[in-house]
């Protein structure tokens, strides 16, 4: 009895806004076209991906799926090459995102002390972000070419001879640095926005209290911009998993698989070996990772109330 | 920090701070007016960062004006007679660049326009709705934006094959919408959330319909948001390689594909390649810098509002 009494107002809670009910409808109508298209572009492929991951996909004579149970999944977890790709992906991820965070923050801290011309400098620093990643890769190839590359020439005069993209370690370092070149500016931009939001008065108070530069940084600046840094980290992490164009056009996974991170392997599996079922299983695993990061991002927005 | 000032007297201790600041001499505001050492560090870091950032871009620009001998000279050529050969070769002959430019403009432009229109509508709805599953809805939207391209390309390829959308501009537009639409919805919703609801409430009181209030009051207030969203969508789509390499064919190949096609087994025409690179890059840089003020907001999906 009491349960019913309690639950019915709960149920009714959606109605009390009856006067403003058209309001809800209006918002729904506004969202409808976009959400329908988005559903078609995301839920449909997702279901297809799930179905494919349990099947062998035949392409000739119309697309057909033949159920093969868990074999794609079993394969993806027992494939030693695949594990190596994951390991490489993690190293690539940690190195790129880590370097970008450190360098981006460093540049932001320095730019912040530049009083005159800061806007011009920041504008110039930002330019790499707008370069198509595939062009970054191709340009990187040009710069590191062992016969006529500018950077290869500089390195040669410093004593490093050898084909940069030709040997595993230096190729890996090169693709990491190309990504760092393109995306450090993003971190610098976001960090600088965070730094600018630390009130002048707080910094002045710290200075009056005799805090050294490092202490101000450690106890005033970092805590104040930690939220912003976290946003930068999460945004960059999500994109770091998404993009692989640079590796695709420079080494294409080589030499000797040294730069074959998971997305490259996925492309190769699907579009060179036409093993769509296996590629789907790999894709779903990647998707799970990116959803975890997206979840952290949304949760952080919720708890720290950065926006809504 | 202040072990040097020792006073047995408790009252002296409380007064210590202002006293201590004085002997340090220069009134320190550690960020703006730093010591000479820090200033050098700052200068060096800034110079190195600028070189690291700009040298590749300048080198690309310079090389695009070199003749074929200078482009692949073993010693880098800084002084050379600039020639327009690379650009001329790109725009003449059977395999010229115009179709690629046209495909890029169409695919990126249409997808950006559609994303902004649908994104503005849905973003407004999302910002104002009080429906129950709002958080789940928002999470679904952001997670589609963040889904790895490699994971989407595979099923989309099969679906597009079935629908005959491979090698067509509509196919590319749809593929680009798969990441631009959730981005636009999320970002526009962040921009709309900053407009106080009281504004449209007063418009309603004045006799507007909800649509009129949105159209005439709210939308003009978020003009900068619309422009920023459009530019960023344009940049993401224009710069895409992963989708285009799978979905496009002779009828829809975009500029990044044109660039990668210059890489052949027999060798690479670096002069032409740097010229294409310059053509691909410059419009996006200009567009991006045009919305500099809102870049932070845009690129953090509204999580950080800048400057």
From TrEMBL, chain A:
<dbReference type="InterPro" id="IPR000515">
    <property type="entry name" value="MetI-like"/>
</dbReference>
<keyword id="KW-0813">Transport</keyword>
<keyword id="KW-1003">Cell membrane</keyword>
<keyword id="KW-0472">Membrane</keyword>
<protein>
    <submittedName>
        <fullName>Sugar ABC transporter permease</fullName>
    </submittedName>
</protein>
<feature type="transmembrane region" description="Helical">
    <location>
        <begin position="119"/>
        <end position="143"/>
    </location>
</feature>
<dbReference type="GO" id="GO:0005886">
    <property type="term" value="C:plasma membrane"/>
</dbReference>
<dbReference type="GO" id="GO:0055085">
    <property type="term" value="P:transmembrane transport"/>
</dbReference>
<feature type="transmembrane region" description="Helical">
    <location>
        <begin position="171"/>
        <end position="195"/>
    </location>
</feature>
<feature type="domain" description="ABC transmembrane type-1">
    <location>
        <begin position="86"/>
        <end position="297"/>
    </location>
</feature>
<dbReference type="Pfam" id="PF00528">
    <property type="entry name" value="BPD_transp_1"/>
</dbReference>
<feature type="transmembrane region" description="Helical">
    <location>
        <begin position="90"/>
        <end position="112"/>
    </location>
</feature>
<keyword id="KW-0812">Transmembrane</keyword>
<comment type="similarity">
    <text>Belongs to the binding-protein-dependent transport system permease family.</text>
</comment>
<feature type="transmembrane region" description="Helical">
    <location>
        <begin position="276"/>
        <end position="298"/>
    </location>
</feature>
<feature type="transmembrane region" description="Helical">
    <location>
        <begin position="216"/>
        <end position="235"/>
    </location>
</feature>
<feature type="transmembrane region" description="Helical">
    <location>
        <begin position="32"/>
        <end position="54"/>
    </location>
</feature>
<dbReference type="InterPro" id="IPR035906">
    <property type="entry name" value="MetI-like_sf"/>
</dbReference>
<keyword id="KW-1133">Transmembrane helix</keyword>
UniProtKB/TrEMBL annotation, chain B:
<feature type="transmembrane region" description="Helical">
    <location>
        <begin position="214"/>
        <end position="238"/>
    </location>
</feature>
<dbReference type="GO" id="GO:0055085">
    <property type="term" value="P:transmembrane transport"/>
</dbReference>
<feature type="domain" description="ABC transmembrane type-1">
    <location>
        <begin position="101"/>
        <end position="291"/>
    </location>
</feature>
<protein>
    <submittedName>
        <fullName>Sugar ABC transporter permease</fullName>
    </submittedName>
</protein>
<comment type="similarity">
    <text>Belongs to the binding-protein-dependent transport system permease family.</text>
</comment>
<dbReference type="InterPro" id="IPR000515">
    <property type="entry name" value="MetI-like"/>
</dbReference>
<keyword id="KW-1003">Cell membrane</keyword>
<dbReference type="Pfam" id="PF00528">
    <property type="entry name" value="BPD_transp_1"/>
</dbReference>
<dbReference type="InterPro" id="IPR050901">
    <property type="entry name" value="BP-dep_ABC_trans_perm"/>
</dbReference>
<feature type="transmembrane region" description="Helical">
    <location>
        <begin position="40"/>
        <end position="62"/>
    </location>
</feature>
<keyword id="KW-0472">Membrane</keyword>
<dbReference type="GO" id="GO:0005886">
    <property type="term" value="C:plasma membrane"/>
</dbReference>
<keyword id="KW-0813">Transport</keyword>
<keyword id="KW-0812">Transmembrane</keyword>
<feature type="transmembrane region" description="Helical">
    <location>
        <begin position="100"/>
        <end position="125"/>
    </location>
</feature>
<feature type="transmembrane region" description="Helical">
    <location>
        <begin position="137"/>
        <end position="160"/>
    </location>
</feature>
<keyword id="KW-1133">Transmembrane helix</keyword>
<dbReference type="InterPro" id="IPR035906">
    <property type="entry name" value="MetI-like_sf"/>
</dbReference>
<feature type="transmembrane region" description="Helical">
    <location>
        <begin position="172"/>
        <end position="193"/>
    </location>
</feature>
<feature type="transmembrane region" description="Helical">
    <location>
        <begin position="270"/>
        <end position="291"/>
    </location>
</feature>
<feature type="region of interest" description="Disordered">
    <location>
        <begin position="1"/>
        <end position="33"/>
    </location>
</feature>
